[in-house]
Amino acid sequence: MNIAQNTVVALTYELREGNAQGEIVEVVDPQEPFVFLFGAGGLLPDFENNLSGLKAGDTFEFGIDSDSAYGPFEEGAVVTLPLETFIIDGAIDLSILEIGNVIPMRDQSGQLMHGTVVEVDDNTATLDFNHPMAGIDLYFTGTILAVRLASAEELAHGHAHGADGHSGHHH
Predict the structure, then answer these.
(1) What is the CATH number of domain 7-70+134-157?
(2) Domain-by-domain residue ranges, the chain?
(3) Which end of the chain has fewer CB atoms < 10 Å from its terminal CB, N or C?
């Protein structure tokens, strides 16, 4: 069966920054494959476009430029905030302001955003609200392990329920 709309795909991959020689970002192995409902809209469109039509046993290798992946790095998304922003129960919680911590926050319209702490001084904290992969070209290599038709329940829920249709799924 070929990968197409409303199929469930199980695959392994290696993701690198930039190209085939780039730094490894993530490895998904056969013991815990990546399983998804093709065409459900939860993945990068270029990722799905490059897999369309493949079948179990096929290998793939492709790049996605940063503009088509997680977008360019936006300097305006790096924001310096007064430490008072982080007052919890009357005190500034410095433990959450460690470099590299990701802090959930809301913007003026209530939209949830995640900022990574990049700098802290005596009066301010600088957070980066860019996606961690913003501005980075992606390069994938991998193997299709299985392709099957999605069940009616998976289609109704809009996601795969595991490689076999039900394992690892809880509501």
Answers:
(1) 3.10.50.40
(2) 7-70+134-157, 75-128
(3) C
Asked if 82 and 124 count as a contact pair (C-beta separation under 8 A), the reply is: yes
* Contact yes or no for 22/152 (Cβ under 8 A): no
14 contacts 143 by C-beta, under 8 angstroms = no
- In angstroms, rounded to a whole number, what is the distance separating the alpha carbons of residues 117 and 105? 12
**What CATH number does the domain located at 75-128 have?**
2.40.10.330
* Three-class DSSP labels, the chain: CECCCCEEEEEEEEEEECCCCCCEEEEECCCCCEEEECCCCCCCHHHHHHHCCCECCCEEEEEECHHHCCCCCCHHHEEEEEHHHHEECCEECHHHHCCCCEEEEECCCCCEEEEEEEEECCCEEEEECCCCCCCCCEEEEEEEEEEEECCHHHHHHCCCCCCCCCCCCCC
The Cα 62–Cα 41 span in angstroms is 19
Q: Residues 54, 3: contact at Cβ < 8 Å? A: yes
Tens-digit pLDDT profile for residues 74-91: 999 999 999 988 888 888
Give the alpha-carbon dihedral of 98, 25, 28, 139, to 10 degrees: 150
